[in-house]
Amino acid sequence: MNIDVENSEEVDLDELLDKAFKTIQFYLKSKDYKTAEAILEQTIKVTDKHLFYQLLSLVKTKMNKYEEAETLYKKLCDDYNNPDDYNNYALFLNNNNRMQESLVYSSKAMELNPEKAVFYSNHALTLTRLNKHDEALEFINTALKMRSDEWYHHANKGCCLAEMSNYEEAEQCFRNAVKIEKCDKEINVDLFHCLAFQKKFKEAWTFYEERYFCYENLMKFMIANKLVKPDNLSENLEFVVFCEQGAGDNLMYLRFLEEFQQKYKNSYFFCPENFVSIMSDKIKWKPEIDKNTQFGISLLSLPFYLGAEKIPEPYKICEYKKPNNLKKKIGLIWAGNAAAPMDYQRSTFFTDFADNLDFEKHEIYSFQKDRRVRKYKNQTNVVDYSENFEKYKITDLSEELIDVKSTATMMSQMDLIMCIDSLPTHIAGSVGVPTVLFVSNKPDWRWGKFGDSSEWYSNIKIYRQVTDEKRTQSFKETIGFAVKDLGL
């Protein structure tokens, strides 16, 4: 959209701006941020209206144009001294892991307008991320006193309480949130996580189904393949079961597929390439989705349809027999998929393992497929988790790890796997090789928050980062403790 004032004999600018705003709204709802940005860039050439600058800053944030977005946020705060601008900038800083700065701007928003509940709630979000939970709860409770009819504050309180491991109270907060009209569908997923941490799996699966309405990649997949999630499954219905999210998630849920297909015989599994070699004769699968297939569900929905209360044994890739090695063979994985949203929280440095292990006493093998340096979204620094790898006496298996089957075969020759939470963890769990898993103080729901075991894999022993009021234990310290504990 190009607003050309000079060539118009008579222009109603207000009318043009109203049309521009409606057009921008359309593209924002369609998540076509590029077009929305182009219209906004043209619009601010003919008006200094506050709203359009606000929208442009938010659009540039959505487009990951962080430097341009921050310039706009600062300009808005300086030019207008508006509490909403301070609040938006605080959220931007929070998402960029600049917590202390975020608190400054959210405090300014509350100072300028102490009657707006969302400002207190957003301030609490940052305090929660800083592990200042008691202080966060004070601000959230203030927000709830102002507007208990808004789902956002109930959800934020649930998130804070869940981080404090007060899952029963958190559960009630999430339930309060989802009862309120127009509650974000993602809060149902938060409720799923809360229930899963409490091992209330049968009820949890129901809320997890709401991701079909809020997980963007899942929705795009359904649309691209012209698939519809059936309202009800029947034994005669023909439909496809497809993979969703990470390969580790899918391998973990593969355990439900055989039982599911016994019940729904007209279903077939759309098998990803790296899973083809591990497909059993009991599973009906295809390498592509048939063009005439109308209905589909995610592999991660199978426990919901099966009404699973307990977690069955893992999908077996191969049988593990303890090898008779002269030296203990130990396989290492220290970093996950860089594209995973929380990879920075679960990955650690190779040297955290290397500095704790005796490379003369044991044979050490690397199952780390990707050793490239990585740069995370919202962060400027580059991270090299494999730094100094070449300086150690370690066998690199990366060229031999072609797919899940080949990785499983190599793992079956190990005495022990030591890893962080990633696909190889699930492969090791499915092989049955003794495995030590290191998780952060904010673990994924499948590993629970307490204890050294998980119902998903009986052969995995979990070591957790210890957190107290002063600090969180480093992965290196956690690994060091495990090495001593295991007598390595």
Concise summary:
With 488 residues, the protein is α/β, with parallel strands linked by helices. The protein has helices spanning 13-29, 33-43, 50-62, 66-80, 83-95, 99-112, 117-129, 133-146, 151-163, 167-179, 186-197, 201-208, 216-224, 247-253, 257-263, 302-306, 343-346, 350-354, 404-411, 423-431, 475-485; strands at residues 239-242, 267-270, 285-286, 296-298, 329-333, 363-366, 395-396, 416-420, 435-439, 460-464.
List keywords for this structure.
single chain; 488 residues; alpha/beta; four-stranded parallel β-sheet; 21 helices; disordered N terminus
Structure explained in plain terms:
- By secondary structure, the chain is of the alpha/beta class.
- It has helices spanning 13-29, 33-43, 50-62, 66-80, 83-95, 99-112, 117-129, 133-146, 151-163, 167-179, 186-197, 201-208, 216-224, 247-253, 257-263, 302-306, 343-346, 350-354, 404-411, 423-431, 475-485; strands at 239-242, 267-270, 285-286, 296-298, 329-333, 363-366, 395-396, 416-420, 435-439, 460-464.
- Strands 7-6-5-8-9-10 form a 6-stranded parallel β-sheet. It has a 4-stranded parallel β-sheet with strand order 3-2-1-4, with no helix packed on it.
- Strand 8 (416-420), helix 20 and strand 9 form a beta-alpha-beta unit.
- The model is unreliable at 1-8 (pLDDT under 50).
